[in-house]
Amino acid sequence: MLRKVAATRYIAALREGGSLPGLIEADDRGTYVLKFTGAGQGRKTLVAEVVCGELARRLGLRVPRLVTVDLDPVLGLGEPDEQVQDLLKSSGGTNLGMDFLTRAIGFDPLAFEVSPEEAGRIVWFDALINNVDRSWRNPNLLMWHGEPWLIDHGATMIWHHHWPGARTSAAKPYDAADHALARFGPDVATAAAALAPQITEELLAEVTAEIPDVWLADEPGFDTPDALRRAYAEPLLARAAGIHERIEGIK
Question: DSSP letters along the chain, please?
C-alpha cells in the first residue's frame, strides 16, 4: 500500500493547477504536493492519479512518489484565502500527496529534446490510460535532473465517470495529434512491444490494490471496493493489447 503520512503544515497554494493543489510539510519531514478530495472531481481524480502513477512507475516511467496524506481540517483555520480555507476544511481525512521535485522546471517541447524511444513509451502509456491532458499547451511533464517526469493524471480513464459506458468508451482510439511529444517522432511500435506484455491481471491487481478503500466506498453499482478495483483493471487490460494500432495523429 502507499505509505501514509500526516500533514503538519500548509505552505502555499500551487495555482498552476485547476484543482488548486497545495504544498505541504508532513510528519516524515517530507514536502509534498497535496491533491484534495474536496477539489474538482473529488476522489475519482485521486483514484486516477494512483492507478496511472503507480502503473507508470511499474512500467519504468518516471513519476514522483505517491503517498496518502491524512489532513486535519484545522490546518485551514489560519489560511487567509477563503477558497483555500474552504478546500482544506472540506478535505479532512485521506488525501493524496506526491513528492515535491525541488527545482524541477516545466517541460517545453521547443526547449528540450526527447528521444523517439522515450517519446514512444510516454505516448503509448498515455494512449493506454486515455490521457487527454498531455498536450503541447499543457504538457504535465517536468524536467528534473535532465529527465522528463510525468505528473497530473487526474484527467485520465474518463470511462470511470460513467461505468455503464466504460467498455464502449475504453474501446475508442487515442488522438495524439496535440500530444506534447508528437514532434519527437515517438516510436510507439517498439514501446508497445516492450510494455503491452507487462499489462497483466496480476500487475493491475497490484496497482489497484494501492487505492485506499475510502475513495472507493459507496460507488453506485458496486458492492465492494474490490469489485470497483476490478472494474478499473478491466478496461486497461483490454486496451493494452491493441491500443498502439489505434493511436491517431502521429506518423
Answer: --EEEEEEEEEEE-TTSTT--EEEEETTS-EEEEE-TTSTTTHHHHHHHHHHHHHHHHTT-----EEEEEE-GGGGTT-S-HHHHHHHHTT-EEEEEEE--TT-EE--TTT----HHHHHHHHHHHHHHT----BSSS--EEEETTEEEE---TT--GGGGSGGGHHHHHTS-EE-TTBTTGGG---HHHHHHHHGGG--HHHHHHHHTTS-GGGTTT-TT-SSHHHHHHHHHHHHHHHHTTGGGGEES--
